[in-house]
Amino acid sequence: MAGQKMLKFVTLTKETPPKRDANLRAQDFDEIYRQFAVEKAAEQASRCSQCGVPYCQSHCPLHNNIPDWLRLTAEGRLEEAYELSQATNTFPEICGRICPQDRLCEGNCVIEQSGHGTVTIGSVEKYLTDKAWEMGWVKPITARTQRPESVGIIGAGPGGLAAADVLRRAGVQVTVYDRYDRAGGLLTYGIPGFKLEKPVVMQRIEQLEIAGVTFVLNCRVGEDMSFDAIRGQHDAVLIATGVYKARDIEAPGVGAKGVVRALDYLTASNRKSFGDDVPEFDSGELNADGKRVVVIGGGDTAMDCVRTAIRQGATSVKCLYRRDKANMPGSQRETQNAEEEGVEFVWLSAPKGFSGGTAVDGVMVQKMRLGAPDVSGRQVPELIEGADYVEPADLVVQALGFEPEAIQTLWGVPDLAVTRWGTIKADFRSHATNLPGVYAAGDIVRGASLVVWAIRDGREAAESILGYLAQPASVAAE
């Protein structure tokens, strides 16, 4: 009976796929987790309690039907499990690798709350989809009928690609515009290979290309093509550009050589992994080899930067964060991985400026303590007077998050409604903007967030666009 294969959390302990040795993995950009064997995946899936109210599912932005595909995995019905996992998720193999499951599905697992250790949902999800690609279970994107309507998507990141997938399955003609020379957005250039190997992303882009999605790359809207021109070529437009404007530190010396932005640093590293010619890397400007590296920030991007610097051969890597470990916004799992690989975290520390003149040689650090909570409930860092010191550094990476670019100005669309934060104002259900036939999804609406939220927004926006395209022309124009 199926029930006998589940509820084994009382006899089986939690196990994750083994990590490669920290010293070995720090020498390359390959993923750090080994693959589950089929027996181990089924065994770990069988620990699911099949609870009546699956908090794992409700805390997943995509509301993936996790208990059911765990049960199918435990029963050895792997193809059916994959089909169920991809029914709600355009890129399950990507989410299985990079989602912060400790804050989402796994962090809300019922057996985790009861002290038995969570079901390793992300690892099973990754295993299922990798097995599906290996076995040929991933079917080509096909539509029963081809439709004449055309949709332009600006941004080839996870939100835009998820929308393209939904629209092509419905037979709509799709063109995706992107500023980079490869599709994928941050999946391609922002996330290092040790978290997400690039062939995993490229195979999904190839699937969309085979399905008939047209990619117009190296296209900067507002420079190479106007937004009005794109609107004129399509029946509807989705803006899914993400947020790329880096938050800079306002401090003396910030413009010195050797003080760089996180995305520039990560993009250079990822380009090298593709075999591209990257002069900024080859010159040493965006290369940590032989340098004392300081990364400023405590989010997942900062973790990507410190772990990249280790692999590039930095002599030392330190991460400055103004709060303590318990209050950092990044994944605790990523922090642990970084510590294992040799990163030193300097908690309760904030930059005051940079020394060295035209070329940085140190970060002027202010020591902090945590004071009373603010309106969000987080304790506010307070300056400790007289505790300043200089942290030696040859390369400083600013990883303080991202903000939206000024799309109204850059694209020449002053009528497009934006919020006071610069994000596009869109209906939170339909993702429609104030411009007829124009939709927006992902980080450009919600601010810097998770890939899984962008996927959800892209899928929802695509469904709304299908509804819009089905309206009579007179209604759609209103």
UniProtKB/TrEMBL annotation:
GO molecular function, one term: oxidoreductase activity
Domain of life from the UniProt record: Bacteria
Domain Dihydroprymidine dehydrogenase, residue spans: 25-136
Stretches assigned to the FAD/NAD(P)-binding domain: 151-458
InterPro entries, per the entry: DPD_II, FAD/NAD-bd_sf, FAD/NAD-binding_dom, GltD-like, Helical_ferredxn
Keyword field: 4Fe-4S, Iron, Iron-sulfur, Metal-binding, Oxidoreductase
Protein name in UniProt: Dihydropyrimidine dehydrogenase subunit A
NCBIfam families assigned: gltD_gamma_fam (TIGR01318)
Cleaved signal peptide residues: none
Species classification: Bacteria, Pseudomonadati, Pseudomonadota, Alphaproteobacteria, Rhodobacterales
Pfam families linked: Fer4_20, Pyr_redox_2
Gene3D superfamilies listed in its UniProt record: Alpha-helical ferredoxin, FAD/NAD(P)-binding domain
